[in-house]
Amino acid sequence: xxxxxxxxxxxxxxxxxxxxxxxxxxxxxxxxxxxxxxxxxxxxxxxxxxxxxxxxxxxxxxxxxxxxxxxxx
Length: 73
Description:
There is one protein chain. This protein is mainly alpha-helical. The protein contains 5 helices and no strands. Helix 1 (2-11) crosses helix 3. The longest helix has 11 residues, at 47-57. It is globular and about 35 Å long.
């Protein structure tokens, strides 16, 4: 999932800091270090954060899980 989080962020041309600032504005207490761990796969993302990221990016949940079932698409 971390690679998908990174792809979405980079496609939106945002830094981790900007994503965290937006998440904090939306009520998710996430620091850059925590978000970095989400992207690197060191930490599992909370459902509440995933919900806000979906709204923020305007994407489907499938975008976060793309390729995780072994299927490239």
